[in-house]
Design a protein that fits this description.
One of its GO terms (cellular component) is ribonucleoprotein complex. Keywords: Ribonucleoprotein, RNA-binding. This is U1 small ribonucleoprotein. By secondary structure, the chain is α+β, with helices and mostly antiparallel strands. The protein folds into 2 domains: 84 residues, RRM (RNA recognition motif) domain (Alpha-Beta Plaits), CATH 3.30.70.330; 71 residues, Alpha-Beta Plaits. 23% of the residues lie in helices and 29% in strands. A 4-stranded antiparallel sheet has the order 2-3-1-6, with helices on one face. The chain has a 4-stranded antiparallel sheet with strand order 8-9-7-12. It has a two-stranded antiparallel ribbon with strand order 4-5. The chain is elongated. It starts with 7 loop residues before the first strand and ends with a strand.
Length: 175
């Protein structure tokens, strides 16, 4: 695993027989004694059983938890803790969001009530927009620009508050 500190820790060797929600609750109770927990993510798939990702408010909190609880005996097993390879995008701070040079921006997890016409209306005043591709099945939209600079300008414009579509806030991402 990655040794570079980040705000998300990867927990291994957790009790596989326990209910997912109960395991998440108990893990959160354990680690919240030492630091504020932003999120606990656990899956039920066979491949990911016994593993969890826990995101903290700061990197220092994550490092403290790792040093305290690595090899800690928890629910019948000795759990292993590593820094995650990377922080989930939804928990990145504004400073961690980086524009990767591209001519296309992406909006994910669009609601069912959003149509191509609504997207056109939202982005009609943005400079350099060539076209807007709406993929309702995948609930995404792709906004193509003439060049990377205009794409970056749009990205920076909506970085702080996101783009508001039908009263909902969405985050712009790069490909």
């Amino acid at each position: 695993m990655n040794n570079r500190p980040c705000r998300t820790l990867y927990f291994q060797n957790l009790n596989e027989k326990m209910n997912k929600s109960e395991l998440a609750r108990r893990l959160k109770m354990l680690v919240s004694r030492y630091a504020y927990v932003v999120d606990v993510t656990i899956w039920n798939t066979m491949r990911l059983r016994g593993q969890a990702f826990v995101t903290f408010k700061t990197t220092d909190d994550a490092a403290k938890i790792k040093s305290i609880l690595d090899n800690f005996f928890f629910l019948g097993t000795s759990m292993k803790i590593h820094f995650a390879k990377k922080v989930s995008r939804r928990y990145k701070t504004k400073q961690e969001l980086v524009f990767r040079p591209t001519k296309t921006l992406v909006i994910q997890k669009l609601g069912n009530n959003i149509s191509s016409a609504v997207l056109e209306a939202v982005f009609k005043d943005e400079k350099g927009v060539i076209r807007i591709r709406h993929v309702p099945v995948k609930k995404i939209a792709l906004i193509d620009f003439i060049d990377k600079n205009l794409c970056e300008a749009c990205f920076r414009k909506y970085l702080e508050d996101g783009v508001c579509i039908n009263g909902e806030k969405y985050v712009l991402e790069t490909l």
